[in-house]
Amino acid sequence: MRTRITLECTECKNRNYNMTKDKKTHPERMETKKYCKFCRSHTLHKETK
C-alpha cells in the first residue's frame, strides 16, 4: 500500500511536492534534492508528517 507524503523545503519551509511511497520498503523519512520555485534553486526537501 502506497501512502501520500509531502516534501518541504529545508531553506524556506514551503511545502512544494506531493508524492507517494511504499512504507514497507522505505520506512524511514525521505530526503531528496529538488527545485524550489520560491528559493529559485535546488535545495534539500524532507518528508513531513
Automatic annotation (TrEMBL):
One of its GO terms (molecular function) is structural constituent of ribosome. Keywords: Ribonucleoprotein, Ribosomal protein. GO terms for cellular component: cytoplasm; ribonucleoprotein complex; ribosome. One of its GO terms (biological process) is translation. Belongs to the bacterial ribosomal protein bL33 family. NCBIfam families: PRK00504.1, PRK00595.1, rpmG_bact. This is Large ribosomal subunit protein bL33. It comes from Schaedlerella arabinosiphila.
